[in-house]
Amino acid sequence: MDLQRDARIAYLNGMKAAIEDANQMLHAYAIIHGLTDLDLRADKRNQYRNAMVKFVGNKVVKTTLDRNDEGVFFLNFGYIATTYGTDRNSGLTQVIGKNAVCNSKDKGCVKTVQNVYAPTKSAQEKACESSDKNIELCYVAIDQQWEQAYVVLKGFSATQCALHYTSATSENNPPKIELITSGC
Question: How far apart are CA 88 and CA 172, in angstroms?
Answer without folding.
Answer: 27
